[in-house]
Amino acid sequence: MRVARIGPVSGSGRWRTLRMGAAALAAAGVVAAVSPAVASASPQQQALNWTQQTPAAHPTARVAQAMAYDAATGTVVLFGGFNFSTGDLSSTWTWDGTTWTNQHPAVHPPKQAQASMAYDAATGTVVLFTTNGATWTWDGTTWTKQAPATSPPARSGASMAYDAATGTVVLFGGLGSGSTGYLADTWTWDGTTWTKQAPATSPPGRTLASMAYDAATGTVVLFGGYAVSVGDFADTWTWDGTTWTQQAPATSPSARDLASMAYDPATGTVVLFGGGTGGPPLGDTWTWDGTTWTEQAPATSPPALAQGAMSYDAATGTVVLFGGYKFDYQHEAKDLAETWTWG
């Protein structure tokens, strides 16, 4: 198995294999324009399947990149990541439903993987929270470093999503720097500053969990993640703008981290794909309907992979998955540059 530079498991500074990034953070699907015919159709009435795209241009292979749908420009935005050969990346790419375009903003965040990103519908910008604790926004043309009065401590592998019910971006957990360990704090971004929340209950501290806003229920959904004292989690939590509630679904994906997740307004469900367990990646597709998880059986699927980035693309009415790593026939990790769509 190939060993890549990742992030520290704890304050000891050790490096962990293939635990490199936050789950792709979903676009705010609630702002997407979906035709009434599609919106009213149930998941069973639609042809739910994965389709591999063949764009003329695309980002280089990578894992641990940040991705979100930018409703202001109608494109999916991808930033950074980690390439097994060249290391951390700082490029910005946009997906228009047909191809990827490498943007060249005059100003951009530094090279990094494991950053967290979400579209802020209240301000019409994409928000990026970096591993060193900085906040950047993308306006469709360039990146701007923000100077909030308060800010979460630096961390990697945090989960982030836009909460349309409160009009704020929600950030949870991650692996803190130094001796802070696995975090269980909840922060919200109002377009100007960050505010630390004090929920009555919270998920245990973790990193690399998957998170997306479920517009059908008006809650943020969090699944899985990793903490060295526990291993991989298999729990489902929802955030209602005030507190976290642990759900007890009848069926659920197996324990994992590094899974890709996004809300699909076309079906009114949250879609989860793949993930890691410390061994070969997973290749299953699950949907969350607000009550339970259902494993799907698409005719075609991406290869079993972990640490890909996923976002809903309102312009095409599909969920977009890019990158991640798979195991090759020699059981070595291989980073990918593949684009897949679900819908």
Question: Helices, strands, pairings?
Answer:
Blueprint: H1 36-40, E1 50-53, E2 66-70, E3 75-83, E4 87-95, E5 100-103, E6 116-120, E7 125-129, E8 135-138, E9 143-145, E10 155-156, E11 159-163, E12 168-176, E13 182-189, E14 194-196, E15 210-214, E16 219-223, E17 226-227, E18 231-232, E19 236-239, E20 244-246, E21 260-264, E22 269-275, E23 282-288, E24 293-295, E25 309-313, E26 318-322, E27 325-327, E28 333-335, E29 339-342
Antiparallel strand pairs: 1-29, 2-3, 3-4, 4-5, 6-7, 7-8, 8-9, 10-12, 11-12, 12-13, 13-14, 15-16, 16-19, 17-18, 19-20, 21-22, 22-23, 23-24, 25-26, 26-29, 27-28
Detailed description of the structure:
The chain is 1% helix and 40% strand. The strands form eight sheets. Strands 10, 11, 12, 13 and 14 form a five-stranded antiparallel beta sheet that branches. Strands 1-29-26-25 form a four-stranded antiparallel beta sheet, with no helix packed on it. The chain has a single domain, classed as 6 Propeller (Neuraminidase). The chain has 343 residues and is mainly beta. The protein is globular, with a radius of gyration of 18 Å.
